[in-house]
Amino acid sequence: MLADFKIVIPARYASSRLPGKPLLDINGKPMIQHVYERALAAGASEVVIATDNAEISAVANGFAATVCMTRADHVSGTERLGEVVDQLGWPDDSVVVNVQGDEPMIPSQIITQVAENLIANPDAACASLMTPFTKVESIADPNVVKVVVDASGFALYFSRAAIPFLRDPEQAAAVTYYRHIGLYAYRASLLRNYSALPVCTLETIEKLEQLRLLWNGLRIHMAEALVVPAHGVDTEHDLEKVRALLG
After folding, report:
1. What is the CATH number assigned to the segment(s) 6-246?
2. pLDDT band for position 19 (50/70/90)?
3. What is the pLDDT of residue 155?
4. What DSSP designation does 154 have?
């Protein structure tokens, strides 16, 4: 039996490095359409593009996507999802996966996986994915987020620093470092209440939104990704790489 879940794809026009990013052409299709088609293949009961931009909405309607127009003042994609949940009247126990609009190569398999991860862990407020590091030098890269988990797979902490800290180099062989993959499944009840959660100092220091959940006592269950996703599109160089890979 397939998991029952929904997908929301937040799509903003504004981008400091690539304005209009969701609409950029990738081999004859706008980027947002590639993301939408990957999301459809994951088997969700509903797939919705959430945007505050009329041009994005018009393009999405052109390929028969479901669009939810949202306010322009949201400070995060998570807050935008909360508005979608309210507008569409989804029940509190609905599982909602946030798929970023700049991930045209996201494997459908892991979208399904993160939803199933949350469904299988009723004590979790949300679920996400991780993967072991394959490049040692990336462990120290502050642009790559690390995560440590407990014995049951619940996140203990996320950081831009290398965690756990290796105090004794002789123990290096016993340590596996995990990279956090920023794909989340939430319960609709959490999304409805997210904006009311107090912002914590850890979140503002690390610039990691998920730390707000941990600080407020909410649990995030992690699973090792079945497939390692390619990098999203943040720069013109990323865009050209994706065009070549999808060509």
Report:
1. 3.90.550.10
2. confident
3. 98
4. B
Cα end-to-end span (Å), the chain: 34
How big is the CA angle at 142 (ends 136 and 144), to the nearest 5 degrees? 65
Give residue for tokens 């994915």: 129
Structure tokens at 57: 């909405």
Nearest to 104 by CA among 194, 5, 189, 9: 9
Residues 160-175 pLDDT 10s = 999 999 999 888 888 9
**SS3 of 203, please?**
helix
**Domain boundary assignment for the chain:** 6-246
Question: Do residues 37 and 80 make contact, with C-beta atoms less than 8 angstroms apart?
Answer: no
pTM reported for the whole predicted model: 0.93
Which pLDDT score, from 0 to 100, does residue 234 have?
Answer: 86
Quick one: tokens of 153?
């797979």
